[in-house]
Amino acid sequence: MRVFSTFRKTSLRPVVGIGNFDGFHLGHRKILAGVIQAAGSRGTPAVITFRDHTRLGDSGEENRLLTPSRQRLDHFRRLGLAACWMIDFRRSLASLPPGEFIERILVGKLGIRGICVGEGFRFGAGRSGTVELLRRRSQAGGFRVREIPSVRVGGREVRSSLIRREVEAGRLEEAALLLGHHYCLTGRVARGWGKGSKLGYPTANFFPEQLLPAPGVYAARVAAGSNPRCGLLYIGSRPTYSSPAPRSVIAEAHIFDWSGRLGGRRIKVYLIKRLRGDIRFENERLLVARMKEDERQARSLLGRPGRKRARTVG
Question: Which residues are registered as beta bridge partners of 117?
Fold first, then answer.
């Protein structure tokens, strides 16, 4: 897949999907499946997306992204897209009137032959551009427009904002139904306290690049350049241990029956189910006893005979 960081003239004549695609959920998949179908064997299936979410505030705020740019690119490649414009959403682009975006960017530089967008899609300055505007400009611009209906699961419209609420509440099974895959945290492993190893549960500490789920312990699958292995993920502030400094939330992944080293490596942690909240224990003995129970529950859940595994895509 060819990846571009700026809009420039191209001979590709692509069919594009456009949006934030944060979460890469079932609705996003439907839009991009429409792109691939519309491109056919002669066109170039492509996507226009943005490195920073267009509606989640400044990068200095708490991270609210479900799917950072690196992870989205992986999704696009696996789906079979041939080109991606991964654009920085600067003020000059945000203030561009929708008509100018169509004429200058979509037609003038990219030369699109088709565009697929989600139901009720809005774009341009003040989000004033509509699907109807795209249709009015399509004949002169030489491209076709396809509006993809929203996807509904359990009576609810699949939206990234809904998935964020499920993740923040620790309802990862519900989030997976809307995503079509398990929610995945990624990050680079850093040096930790070493406390886990002393307790019999060595962990890989990392700083997730995505929106954090509710604090607690999760049954998880952990991958570091290999097939995912069963394990546990802890999200929390270690309330059992006293600390003179303000507590910060950490992420620690433990892999069952594995003793390799992960320091400095990037890992992916697929969250399957929240087992419990973040608990303060009176002593380490009680903490270890509960960790053993967490392990028992996770092994039973992740290795249940005859249970069909959900997708671990991310």
Answer: 147
CA atoms within 13 A on the CB side of 102: 26
Three-state DSSP class for 300? Answer: helix
The torsion of the CA quartet 67, 70, 71, 72, rounded to 10 degrees, works out to 70
Q: Both 83 and 35 in a single domain?
A: yes
Identify the CATH number of the domain in which residue 277 sits: 2.40.30.30
CA proximity to 4, closest of 86, 115, 75? 86
Task: Give residue 55's pLDDT band: very low, low, confident or very high (50, 70, 90).
Answer: low
Query: Are residues 141 and 11 located together in one domain of the fold?
Result: yes
Q: What share of the chain is helix, strand, coil (3-state, %, to 5)?
A: 30, 25, 45
Q: Are residues 203 and 139 located together in one domain of the fold?
A: no
For residue 214, count other CB atoms closer than 10 A to its CB.
17
Q: What is the pTM of this model?
A: 0.86
Nearest to 278 by CA among 218, 189, 196: 218
Torsion region of 18: left, alpha or beta (phi above 0 gives left; psi -120 to 50 gives alpha): beta
Same domain assignment for residues 114 and 8: yes
pLDDT tens profile 199-258? 667 788 898 999 999 999 999 999 987 788 999 999 987 766 666 444 566 899 999 988
Phi then psi for 104, rounded to 5 degrees? -80, -40
Domain that holds residue 199: 183-302
User: Does 161 fall in a domain?
Assistant: no
